[in-house]
Amino acid sequence: MQHYTPGRAPGDFRHGFLVAHALHLILETKRFAMTPFFNSRELYLIYNPDAELDRKVHALAYSVNSVVHEIDVMRKTITPLHWKEILNLLHVGPSSLINNGHPDYNRLIAGKDFSEDDYLEVLFQNPQLVKGPIGVLHDRAVLCDDPNDILRLDDTPDAEQQL
Which residue from 48, 74, 115, 118 has the highest number of Cβ atoms inside 10 Å of its Cβ? Predict the structure, then answer.
């Protein structure tokens, strides 16, 4: 026996599918918001492979961890939510990631007031403005001004001797 709902023809199950789909999306959104972007046992390198410093950091990253997830900021979209997570791990504000020596800085940022959300949007839309590569491992992150900075994420017993 089928139940009849006013406004729908008997046998039309689209309404139930839409409700189930909407519930699934809500649950996925909540799960995504509560799930960290980074797996704690793997090294994530957020970098621009066209930059010399970034390539040097990339070469050293494999000495820190055998699993390195390379995130090319120029080809992979990093959402404002992910930038926020990166900033929380770095314990800095978004303006700290901006390279004020980059040619696009004067056009996009200089002389303007930005909120934190505005800066996150700038990073999202203009990843070329990031100062340097960022390494993330466990619950720690490092903004690399020098290639050896990535080694600060190494937590093996002999790692301190390398630094």
Answer: 48
